[in-house]
Each structure stands twice: as structure tokens, then as C-alpha cells.
Specification:
This protein has one domain: Winged helix-like DNA-binding domain superfamily/Winged helix DNA-binding domain (Arc Repressor Mutant, subunit A), CATH 1.10.10.10. A two-stranded parallel ribbon has the order 1-2. The chain has a two-stranded antiparallel ribbon with strand order 3-4. The termini are close together. The chain is mostly helical.
Length: 125
């Protein structure tokens, strides 16, 4: 987005996901809660599915379900691509489950400023 146009929901999701540190994971629900739309975890998934061709890239592989499972893996180029990307960042995955999920979980609400501040800081992208 440029100028003073409002940032749409998908773009907000992408900006949050771009903030997830390498070697960490977050969940669809955590992103939705951070954005103030706790009931829209599925919409977060739709945003990630639409993110594969946007620039700057969105590390959608870092978003898993609330149990740490790779439920979005079929939206990648191959069924193993999501796991391979996570493993390249040092995250162990066994049978589509992030190992040590609790320790690797990154909560945007505890790491990013309030959404109004975060998005006003990044509107110049």
C-alpha cells in the first residue's frame, strides 16, 4: 500500500507474518487475535494462500495451526516444501507436527506494538 490508503486485511496478515523471526512459528489464530479479529483464523489462511507471489515475500511456512501442525502444507509447491523450509530454519518437524511447538511459538501480540502503531510504522512500504 502506498500513501494514506487503508491497509487491507490480507496485507495486514502478510506484514505480521513477515515479522515472524526465522526459526519460530505462529498460528492462524494468534495472527487473527493480534489483528482484533479473533474469529477470522480461516481468513488468515486465505491470506497466506494468496501470498505466494507477493513482494516482499511472505514466509507463510512459519504459520501453523493451534496445535503446531502443518495444515497449510498443501498450498505450497510440493507437499513437503513447508516442512523443508521450516527444517532449513532449524525447526524439527515429525509427521507434520512442529516439535517443541510451545517453545518455538511466537505471539505477535506479545512481540509487536499495538496494531494501530505497527501498521502506521509500516505504511511506507
Amino acid at each position: 500500500m502506498r500513501g494514506r490508503e487503508p491497509v487491507d486485511f490480507f496485507e495486514r496478515v502478510w506484514r505480521v507474518v513477515r515479522a515472524v523471526p526465522k526459526g519460530r512459528v505462529t498460528t492462524y489464530g494468534a495472527i487473527a487475535r493480534y489483528l482484533g479479529t479473533a474469529q477470522s483464523a480461516r481468513l488468515v489462511g486465505y491470506a497466506l494462500n494468496a501470498s505466494h507471489t507477493v513482494y516482499p515475500p511472505v514466509p507463510a511456512h512459519r504459520v501453523v495451526n493451534r496445535e503446531g501442525r502443518l495444515t497449510g502444507k498443501f498450498h505450497f509447491a510440493t507437499p513437503t516444501a513447508m516442512q523443508e523450509l521450516l527444517e532449513a530454519e532449524g525447526i524439527s518437524v515429525c509427521q507434520d507436527q512442529v516439535q517443541n511447538f510451545t517453545e518455538l511459538f511466537w505471539d505477535p501480540a506479545g512481540s509487536l506494538p499495538w496494531p494501530a502503531i505497527f501498521f502506521s510504522l509500516t505504511d511506507g512500504e
